[in-house]
Amino acid sequence: VDGEFRNKLTGASFDVNDYGLIKQPKISAVFSPTEAYSVYANWGRTFQAGVGASTYLIPPRVTDLDPSINDGWELGVKLNPVQWIEARIAYWQQEASGEERRRLNDPSNESDNIGETKRRGVDFQIDVRPGDKWNLWLAYAQQKSTIVTPDPASPTTKGKEIDHVPHYIFTGGIDYQANAKLRFSLTANGHGDYFLERTNSTGKFGGHYLLNAGLSYQITKAINLDFQIKNLADRYWEYVWHDGTQSLHSPGDRRAYYASVNATF
Fold this sequence. Notes:
With 265 residues, this protein is mainly beta. Helices cover 0% and strands 58% of the residues. The protein contains no helices and 17 strands. It has strands at 4-6, 13-15, 26-34, 37-48, 68-79, 85-102, 111-128, 134-150, 168-177, 182-191, 194-195, 204-205, 208-218, 223-230, 238-242, 247-251, 256-263. The chain is globular.
């Protein structure tokens, strides 16, 4: 990892942390006893370099930071019992040796050291095509994050959950191809509440469920019209964070309408 930070106000330059040689081995395997079923497994290593200003040796920082080494594995099954159904279910886990995150509302763009963390969860996906006109799909993830060994400056976060990581996330939809030119769609997406900071003492917020509708009309081979209604039910939803004193709430868009023309040539 190479680079530098240059302060154009002062003319000072600072090198990126010397992370050394970062190794990222990966291995995967698939076993298919029949054409309809497959079992797969994979293991791999990635890394996280510095975040924000901590990417560089900017004073008072004088010691190179080590990268966070992320080891993860996944075990899953893919199903295709009939031609019009495809599905996948998997269990996964990831461990990070020293996770960082950008510090919110910080004028110096500094970061916080979360510490050693573990994430694990279950993913499920299904795609159903009962005919030429219909397509139904759903993706759902259940997950849990834990701070295993916290930053020494934050001992009370040991065993707590990482902030802004909801327990579940989902997205799904139905597409209907009325004819060669006209297609309707109805989609939904959402996630559960999340903690606002790493001590998990300020409550959980942010969970929401949104419904969207769409219509697509192919005028010619080259021109397509697209209409969308986002947040069809006009639900209130928000992104929430904590500034150390209070929770701050940023509302999302209410019902909104979009129209576009797509041309290819």
